[in-house]
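User: For a benchmark we're assembling, each entry needs the component sequences followed by a predicted structure for the full assembly. Here are entry 17's components. Please fill in the structure.
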Amino acid sequence: MGVKPLSAFDLSLAAGLVLALALCSWRLRLGLEKRMAISALRTTVQLLLIGQVLRVLFAHASFPFVFLISMVMLMVAGREVGARQHRRIKGFSGWLLGTGSMFVSSFAVAFFALAVVIANDPWYTPQYAIPLLGMLLGNTMNGIALSMDRLTESLWQQRQTVEQRLLLGQTSLEAIHELRQQAMRSGMIPIINSMAAAGLVSLPGMMTGQILGGSSPMDAVKYQILIMFLICAGTGFGVVTAITLTSRKLFDDRQRLRLDVLQKR
Amino acid sequence: MGRLIVDNLRFRDRGPYSFAIAGGECLGLQGESGAGKTLLLRAIVDLDPHQGSLRLDDLECDRMPAPQWRKKVSMLPAESCWWLDVVAEHFHDFSAVSQEHLALLGFGPEVGGWQVSRLSTGEKQRLAILRMLENRPRALLLDEPTASLDQANSQGVENLLCEYGRANNAPLLWVSHDPKQLDRVADRCLYMRADGSLEPCGGK
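Assistant: Structure for entry 17:
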C-alpha cells in the first residue's frame, strides 16, 4: 500500500492555516508575519528542490552521485556548526574541526549501518543512505555545536582559573579537565534524553513518516530503534572527537591558553 | 647557584629585557599600573608567547615542558583563583604544609577544611602563597603579593617569602606599588616606565 498522494490544492489548504496565523500576528503586532512568509516560502522551495534531486538520485543510484550529495550535506552542516557558536575558532581550522569531527563520526556510523546492519546491495542504495546520513548529520551537528560552544564559552569565562592552574604546574589537559567533561556531557545529554522519552512522549519523525508511508508499525519501530542507536553513537563519538580537537587547538605547544584563536560572532 | 637569567626577552611590542637575579636575591619592580609589569612576569613564567632566552642556572626554559618550568619558576598572580570546594583539595597534600608557615600567615592546621566560598580576599591570597610554595619552586615571581592584606598580615607574608628565598637560595622578583615595602624586602629595584622600559631605582 502506497501513500495517498497530496495535490497542490491539498497543500494550499494547509498553507491557508499559516496565512491565518500571519494575519493573527499582524493584528497582534508580533512583527513575525514577514519572517513567517519567507520561512514558509523557503520550506516549500527547498523541499521541492531536494525532492527533484532525490528523484534523479534514486533513478541513477551511482556511488559518485551519492557521495557528492552527502558531501554537500556535510559542508552545509559544517557551516551551521560554526554559525551556532558564540565564540568560534578563527579561520579554516575552526571550520575543519567541526566538519572533520562530524565527518569521522557520522560517516563511519552511517557506513557501518548501511554495509553491515542493513546490508543492501549495493550498500549505498540512496533510498537508505541519504535519509540515514541526513538524520545522523542533523543530530551530530546539534551535539557538536552545543559542546564546542559550551567549551569555548566556559574557557572564556574561566580563563583566569585555568591560567591559575597552569601557573601551579598543571598540564593543559589537567587544567581544563572538568570543563571538557561538562562540554562533552552537554553535547550528549539531548540524545540520551530523547532515547529515554522515545515512544512515550513523542513518536519520532522517521517512524511517523514510515507508518504514513504504509509500513507495518513493528517494522517502523525496529528501524527507529536502529536509528536511535546510530544517532547516539554518532553524536557521542563526534562530540568526543570535536572536544578533544578543540581543546588541543586552544593551547599552544608550550601549554599556554590561547584564547586569541577565538573570534566573537 | 640558583640564578634566574632573563636574556633578550621580547613579547608583543615590549623588550628586549635583559637582567639576572642571583640566588637568594630579591629584585623589586615598581612602575605605573598598565606599564606591563604583570605581562613581564607572565612572559618569564612562559604563560605568554615570547622570544629570547630564560634560564634558571643552566636549565633552559625551552628545553623542558612548560608545566615543569612553571613549577620551578612560580608566579603568584595578584588575584588568586580557587576551583574546588574545600581549601585542602587544592593542595597535593595539605597535611605536609609546614605548621610554621601556616602560623606565620595567621592560620592553624584546621584551615585545610575551610570552604573556599567563605574565604575573604586576603585569606585567599595568603593561602595561595602556601599553595604555590608546595611545589618547592626555585624562583618566585610575586605580583603585588600583599595588595589585599592589612599591615600585620603583610608583615607575615614579607617574612615568609624573604625567609623562603634565603633558605632555598631562590631569586625573588617582587612587584609592588609600595616603595616602603620594597625598601624592606628588595636588595635592588627596577622601575618600569609607561613605555615598558626598565631603569634602576632605590632598594635597601
